[in-house]
Design a protein that fits this description.
Length: 201
């Protein structure tokens, strides 16, 4: 017997609650925010949990409703910081990904860049040469064909903004990890594409 569809009202409410959590604590992943929201609303039915795309839409609506002017200004400043970082790391063919690109970022959202280098050490040495104090961590990324791989992320602060550098091997320039929201390979934006966005902000 086919399952009955989950009540849309609760699913939508969880998406809204998760979006509010992300707006307040931008270091939360969509999965973390979804789980916290479901717990707050006492939902234990997995069928009622919204997809990442539903949470992103709720977040976009939340920011437009409650922070329209401030969010637009913050997004513009974040994109300017991204452009500066992309110029600095131009030897690594940087691409901007994440909320700063899609427009659902606020002042607390980190700028995330993909860098391409066959050795993580090359990026680490560049950061040391430029005297940029940073933190290093490993993250697990999803790829097509259900492949999961550990990659390195360097993070540091540039003024008020946090910059995250996701280092991928050169061979992956045409085989990027999946976007956690859409489930498709992330294309990201080049510096020229970002500058076009900035001109239209």
């Amino acid at each position: 017997m086919p399952r009955r569809s989950a009540p849309r009202a609760l699913r939508h409410q969880i998406a809204i609650e998760a979006a509010q959590l992300i707006a307040e604590q931008s270091d939360l992943s969509y999965a973390q925010a979804r789980n916290k929201a479901a717990k707050r609303l006492r939902c234990t039915d997995q069928r009622q949990l919204p997809e990442n795309s539903e949470i992103e839409l709720a977040l976009k609506n939340h920011l437009q409703l409650f922070q329209p002017t401030a969010q637009a200004t913050q997004l513009h400043e974040l994109r300017k910081s991204a452009a500066e970082a992309m110029r600095l790391f131009s030897p690594y063919h940087p691409r901007l990904i994440g909320p700063v690109l899609t427009g659902v970022a606020n002042q607390h959202t980190p700028v995330t860049l993909i860098l391409f280098s066959d050795t993580v050490e090359s990026v680490a040495i560049a950061l040391m040469d430029w005297k940029i104090p940073c933190r290093q961590r490993e993250v697990t990324l999803d790829y097509s064909n259900k492949k999961r791989v550990m990659r390195t992320v360097f993070s540091f602060h540039a003024g008020e903004h946090q910059i995250e550098l996701l280092v991928l091997p050169e061979s992956e320039r045409h085989n990027l990890p999946l976007d956690p929201t859409e489930g498709r390979p992330q294309k990201g934006a080049s510096l020229d594409q970002l500058l076009t966005l900035l001109a239209s902000d």
